[in-house]
């Protein structure tokens, strides 16, 4: 089947992407790893001994780098609807975290403790209909924020991918009601033409 011009352009861009090549060379599962590395260097979100929750974790690009950061005294709890190959130091829960059974499993894994950081690199399955995709992406980050409000300890941090467009400004305002400091980051590994940015929120009010 002949590829469309758009998919061919994406494929060419992907194959020639320096971050894709770097991820392959460094043994990372995803080019997205470099986005979190840059954010963490700037904002010091994740430290040794932290409990970190990674939402929408598959294929594991973020969990893979977070596990060594938190070390033996820290914990990484990852969740995704899709399967994910195991990572040392990461507890993976497959399923939709908005479903009660999956949510309860996450709470059980936390063992009545609170998380220091909630991270989310979730994105909806792209339909190509911009308005629908934007609503889908805002819905996902709202779910991630709800989870953060439920599981974070006071003073905790939240980092999530969000797409600029309808609902974006309102979402940022909503995040600001729960955190003392909110920043917007556009990491170098984020493609310039992409509307994605990362919201970094620190000092959860609890």
TrEMBL record:
HAMAP family: RNA_methyltr_E (MF_01547). It is found in: Cytoplasm. It comes from the Bacteria. The keyword Transferase applies. Residues 28-204 form the Ribosomal RNA methyltransferase FtsJ domain. This is Ribosomal RNA large subunit methyltransferase E. S-adenosyl-L-methionine binds at residues 60, 62, 80, 96, 121. It is an enzyme of class 2 (transferase). The gene is rlmE. The keyword Ribonucleoprotein does not apply. Coiled coil: none annotated. It catalyses: uridine(2552) in 23S rRNA + S-adenosyl-L-methionine = 2'-O-methyluridine(2552) in 23S rRNA + S-adenosyl-L-homocysteine + H(+). Pfam families: FtsJ. Belongs to the class I-like SAM-binding methyltransferase superfamily. RNA methyltransferase RlmE family. The active site is at 161 (proton acceptor). The lineage of its organism: Bacteria, Pseudomonadati, Pseudomonadota, Gammaproteobacteria, Alteromonadales. InterPro entries: RNA_methyltr_RlmE (IPR050082), RNA_MeTrfase_FtsJ_dom (IPR002877), rRNA-MeTfrase_E (IPR015507), SAM-dependent_MTases_sf (IPR029063). Specifically methylates the uridine in position 2552 of 23S rRNA at the 2'-O position of the ribose in the fully assembled 50S ribosomal subunit. Its EC number is 2.1.1.166.
């Amino acid at each position: 089947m002949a590829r469309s011009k758009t998919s061919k352009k994406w494929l060419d861009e992907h194959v020639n992407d320096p971050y894709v090549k770097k991820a392959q060379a460094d043994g990372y599962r995803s080019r997205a790893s470099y986005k979190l590395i840059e954010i963490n260097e700037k904002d010091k979100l994740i430290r040794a001994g932290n409990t970190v929750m990674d939402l929408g974790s598959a294929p594991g690009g973020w969990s893979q780098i977070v596990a060594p950061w938190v070390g033996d005294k820290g914990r990484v709890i990852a969740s995704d609807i899709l399967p994910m190959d195991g990572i040392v130091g990461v507890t993976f829960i497959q399923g939709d975290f908005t479903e009660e059974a999956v949510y309860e499993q996450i709470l059980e894994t936390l063992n009545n403790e609170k998380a220091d950081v909630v991270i989310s690199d979730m994105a909806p399955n792209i339909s190509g209909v911009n308005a629908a995709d934007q609503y889908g992406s805002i819905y996902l980050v709202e779910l991630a924020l709800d989870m953060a409000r439920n599981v974070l300890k006071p003073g905790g941090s939240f980092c999530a991918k969000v797409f600029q467009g309808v609902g974006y400004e309102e979402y940022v305002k909503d995040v600001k009601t729960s955190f003392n400091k909110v920043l917007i980051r556009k990491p170098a590994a984020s493609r310039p033409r992409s509307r994605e940015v990362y919201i970094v929120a620190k000092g959860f009010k609890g």
